Amino acid sequence: MTTLVGAADLPPLEYQVKAAFLLNFTKFVEWPVASFAEEHSPFVICILGEDPFGAALNQMVKGEGVGGRNLIVQRIRRAPEPKSCQVLFIGGSEKDIPKTLAEVGPGILTVGEGETFLHDGGMIAFVIENRRVRFDINQKTAGTAMLRISSRLLNVARSVEK
Amino acid sequence: MNLRILLWLLLLAAVTPRAKGDEPQRPSQGNTGPQALKNLSLEDLSQIEVTTPSKEPTKASQTPAAIFVITGEDIRRSGATSIPEALRLAPGVEVARIDSNKWSIGIRGFGSRLTRSVLVLIDGRTVFTPLFDGTYWEVQDTMLEDIDRIEVIRGPGGTIWGPNAVNGVINIITKEARDTRGTLVSAGGGNEDQGFLNARYGGGNGNDLNYRVYAKAFTRSPEFHPDGRNFDDWRAAQGGFRIDWSKDQRDTVTIQGDAYDESAGESVQAVSYTQPYSQIVDANAALSGANIMGHWRRVLNDHNDIQVQVYYDRTNRQEANFGELRNTFDIDFLQRIRLPARHQISWGLGARVGPVRDIEVVSGLTFTPSKRTDSLFTAFVQDEIGLVDHRLSLTLGTKFLHTNFTGHGLEPSARLMWTPSGKQTVWAAFTHALRTPSDSEENFNLSGYVGTAPNGTPYFARFNANTNFAPEQLNGYELGYRQLLTPKLYVDVAGFYNHYHDLFSEDITGPTFLETTPAPTHLLLPAQFRNGLLGFTKGVEIAPEWRATNFWRLRGSYSYLHMDIEPAPHSGDVGTAPGIEGSSPQHQVAVQSAVDLSKSLQLDLGYRYVSALPGQKVPAYSTGDARFGWRIGRQFELSFVGRNLLQPSHAESGGDPGPLVGIKRSAYVRLTWSR
User: Fold this and answer.
1) Looking at residue B466, what DSSP letter applies?
2) Under an 8 A CB cutoff, do A24 and B42 touch?
3) Which residues, 6+ apart, have CB-to-CB distance to B269 below 8 Å?
4) Chain B contacts of A128, Cβ < 8 Å?
5) Poorest-pLDDT segment among B4-8, B330-334, B338-342, B356-360
6) Contact A93 B206 (CB under 8 A)
7) Superfamily of structural domain B3-16+53-674
8) How many domains does chain A have?
9) Cα-Cα-Cα-Cα dihedral of B610, B613, B617, B621, to 10°?
10) Please, which of B202, B247, B564, B632 could form a disulfide with B180 given CB 3.0 to 4.6 Å?
11) Record: contact B38-A23, CB cut-off 8 A
12) Neighbouring-strand partners of residue B266
């Protein structure tokens, strides 16, 4: 049973599941080498603005890697520089998401929340459907950013825009 | 968000199996945790219900009740343009359209225009009326695109839900405001649904506050009338809003409201003690109303929380034979407490007060007194006991209630659920439920014109108000089984035996006599609504679902019902039982197929068979619906919908004076724009 203290450390289940999805996305998307600053640069998941994942995402990435690189999580305050992040999560609390997305360069997988996120120019949008976390993918936007999304991920998506 | 839903859940929450060491691959609410989650597959992650058990129902598949959930997506793909039409998707529910704007709906029998003994709620607000303990479906609407789900519970739910949840509960739950951000406009029209326009805008401060506003309007043409009296045209407009605010996942506040105005064509019998005594009037009913509701919830931890809900609802009906102005004030409190040794206690209090004024239009339909205040006070307590951890659970509880019509009432229930594995559920329930008396028995005087005696004296029969009407009583016995047979095939079977007594009857109470008031002098056969019927219903509902491929889903249901209602010994009932028995179908079959032809094309087909209703002189019928949806780019969807396609028209239920109204084959096209 979750204790009061334990509950305080972890975000709601919704965000634990979203964190697990984020981790999964790193396995089903191919990043071009040019997405990284150096040969041994870590693989970075950036959280822009308020972090809804609490301790969950940190616990999940501990000891994980992507394509031989260490996997780390960074909290950032403004749109990332090119090659500094490979996954950018933008929380629903962020203001002016379309503007932020327009500033994000290629090689960064943008993940956000709500059906409007894809319209704003994002690549993967978490949605809640039937009390479950699902996600929509905009394959075209991802392609433009030089990212290849595996068919496995596309099949699980609720909808895919091509 | 919804108090009663919560309550219901509570009933169920204790019994949800939680992922334990022996089943590491099976995710569930409770104690997953980051380490367990990260090892799940994408598919498994997509199956986790992420709202906490204290906030939302547990999975319907692990509920010790006959529950069926119609999702917003199901409604969209069905092509339904009203809530009653959407209810056809649920097994065991009898939906029969009387005309363009009226339905007869029942659950497990007792189908009628009034849908008595079925409790209907929209976001926790009770929309059934104490006027007759039923629901006026034509004024229950919202933006269908904003409905998250409709939970249909067949069978009694009195302990949690309170009085009048005798044959079932229909819970309409709208989406949270954060799930409706953005703009959505849908518009279209066709031969029956002549024109409709729905618009919603949702936004927020980008953080803890979200809102939406909506407006909708439609106009609908009459159905098929063999006598050409096309009285049932229908126009309506409605608007509303919802604001959700949450603080640190601890406090959640929702404020929402709606207002509507309708003109619904109808044909009614108007009886008066002066000439012409009786006439059929075709006129438009003027229907309007508004409500506002506030809900606050504080979560203390997973198993402890407090909720308070308050609402005000106003309805105004002006018909050709009566009028009513009703106000309802309601407050509910709920607390859940976890105690050691696997006890989850829930308790609550509720009060509802409704000042009402009935307006006399004709002398043959009056209420005495015409200004009243209806009231209802309730308390309930329930304990969910985990007998064998995550495998066997027992839920015991009772509701106490007091209304202005009756003294105290008690609605106890016991539910047992066994989940031998995560894929199987067996449940059984015993429930005692009450349908409390309503204005239409206790304060209602309804006259009928019989004819004129040879000497020219008019002759009437009148049901006089019966202030001694007792609650209708039900003892319900239910058994259910659900199993995920293969990863793609799921089946849900529920059976019931309901024993009723003190059921509503229409009794002659004395010999005909000469009555002088109301003038002029007339012959009167005195009658009353009493509690003279008893009997039982039994039946079974089988609802399989087959996800044949990832682009094709096939669902179906078969519902069997047997009703055996008869007058109690010494009852003076005039013979209403056959009409009650004959107004619900013995057999219903439904099949729905949903195919994604491609990422942008959808084809939905529906078929239904409903056996004859001898009480309504309606023959058996079968008909079908079809929808073709085409997603155009990111922002547009065009859909073509055909309903009742298999014949030019077919009757589903009587209810209007004159010949049966035929429900027409209809088609419409809809364009939806969202961004």
Assistant:
1) -
2) yes
3) B278, B279, B280, B281, B321, B657
4) 50, 179
5) B4-8
6) yes
7) TonB-dependent receptor, beta-barrel domain (2.40.170.20)
8) 1
9) 10
10) B202
11) yes
12) B283
The answer, yes or no, to whether residue A116 has pLDDT greater than 90, is no
> What distance in Å separates residue A14's CA from the closest CA in chain B?
5
DSSP per residue, B502-551 = EEEEEEE-S--EEE-SSSSPEEEEEEEEEEEEEEEEEEEEEEEEEEEETT
For residue B64, which of B306, B335, B385, B433 has the smallest C-alpha distance?
B385
B487 contacts: CB under 8 Å, gap ≥ 6: none
Q: CB A133 to CB B46 under 8 A?
A: yes
Q: State whether A17 and B31 contact (CB < 8 Å).
A: no
Taking any CB pair shorter than 8 Å as contact, residues of chain B touching chain A are 29-35, 37-38, 40, 42-43, 45-52, 56, 71, 73, 149, 178-179, 181-182, 206-208, 249, 301-302, 550, 599, 634-635, 674-675
Residue closest to B333 by CA, chosen among B353, B319, B347: B347
Q: How far is the alpha carbon of B49 from chain A, nearest alpha carbon, in Å?
A: 5
Res B363 pLDDT > 70: yes
> What is the CATH classification number for the domain harbouring A113?
3.40.50
- Taking the domains of chain B in order of start, what are their residue ranges? 3-16+53-674
Residue B212 has pLDDT above 90, yes or no: yes
Kindly calculate the radius of gyration of chain A based on its CA atoms and give it in whole angstroms. 15
Q: Which domain holds residue A79?
A: 4-161
Chain segment B405-421, per-residue pLDDT in tens: 877 888 999 999 998 87
Best CA proximity match to B427, nearest among B11, B151, B65, B153: B65
Question: Could you give the 3-state DSSP secondary structure of residue B188?
Answer: strand
Q: In A, which residues are within 8 Å of B37 by CB distance?
A: 16-17, 19-20, 60
Could you read off the pLDDT of B185-209 as tens digits, one per residue?
999 999 999 999 999 999 988 778 9
